[in-house]
Amino acid sequence: xxxxxxLKCRECGREYPVAPVxxxxxxxxxxxxxxxxxxxxxxxxxxxxxxxxxxLWRYKELLPIDGEPLVGLNSGYTPLLKADNLAKEFxxxxxxxxxxxxxxxxLSFKDRVVAIALTKAREFGFDTVACASTGNLAxxxxxxxxxxxxKRFIFIPATLEASKIVASLIYEPNLIAxxxxxxxxxxxxxxxxxxxxxxxxxxxxxxxxxxxxKTHGFEIIEQLGWKAPDxxxxxxxxxxxxxxxxxxxxxxxxxGIIKELSTKVFASQATGCSPISTAIKQGxxxxxxxxxxxxxxxxxxxxxxxxxxxxxxxxxxxxxxxxVSDQEIIDGIKLLARAEGIFAETxxxxxVAVTKKLIESGKIGRDETTVICVTGNGLKTQxxxxxxxxxxxxxxxxxxxxxxxLQKIRRGGK
Length: 414
Ligand SMILES: *Cc1c(COP(=O)(O)O)cnc(C)c1O
Known about the structure:
Order of helices and strands: EEEHHEHEHEHEHEHEHHEHEHHEHHEH
CATH topology of the domain at 80-106 and 211-385: Rossmann fold
Bound molecules: pyridoxal-5'-phosphate
Structural class: alpha/beta
Number of strands: 13
């Protein structure tokens, strides 16, 4: 058996037994998983964790499942890379990339949340899983759902990047491309979720699904040598990942795995869809929905479900919110590739470019330890780089033609 006590409304505190429910019947507040930390503290130590397999289930007592994991044994424990070249570029002492572009089977952090969601869906007895997605979730549910043998209904905005659509289609789910943006898709899915008895991973399974994001945070602390960083820079779509990374840090403190916690949490968005960073900058926790217009499609949620809670975390920890233009995102992707050999998707361009801004504006100190969360692989959003990369040298298949080019390259100093 697991260590979950019950579900609790984040607004009024009313408690609910564990079930596929996600909003409070009385005040419509979101439900959150509550654990028995006293019991977890007795069994989960650094040593126990270190002895386990290097996947996201190594923290299983702090994840909301009762039995054995169904999927995700090949997900998580992604690298924490010391980014010395980027640190030099930004003029700071210690910079790390938490690199979720690799290791996961579908190359984004969504494999973390989906591992928990599908395991829980099976425990609840569902035979069909579904999701509303900005792309990466579609990819992950399509793939992991295939492995676990679920029927799958995947809903996406029809305007998604072609590479993300193919990445889902290859697993042969029922892919429904909706003529509208993510917020339209999500609204439709809430209606469908009320009518059909399906496990919508980010709707009726959301309280459990969202807990999977904590593993990104647990790994940061473990890989830093069991300490929390001074700053963490997190991309925001619905704001869930941000609130859950903070929850993971607090849980490790609660059960005694770390003693100190004074991390500042920073929210990062694309300016073309920045309801959360805008609220933070304006000093309000009222999220004003926007119509997304940005190349960072994986973050393009105009009406973020956890936006309010994300601003609370940022304010509580003394962090800040910042956003960057599409050109800055592209420059961020290119800089990360050039400096650290990592090809990130647009969300990674967002966090790198935001970090640069925060350092330049003095919100992040130059002698502090900072972790940048890079959450998805660049091969998934190649369209965003059309006309933005350097070009190949075209030659004829003979040595003369090559050496002509070589001379040009050498004159250019490469
Ligand atoms: C979904 C996603 C996020 C953040 O999602 P939240 O809804 O804020 O939890 C970040 N990066 C990538 C690449 C994503 O796909």
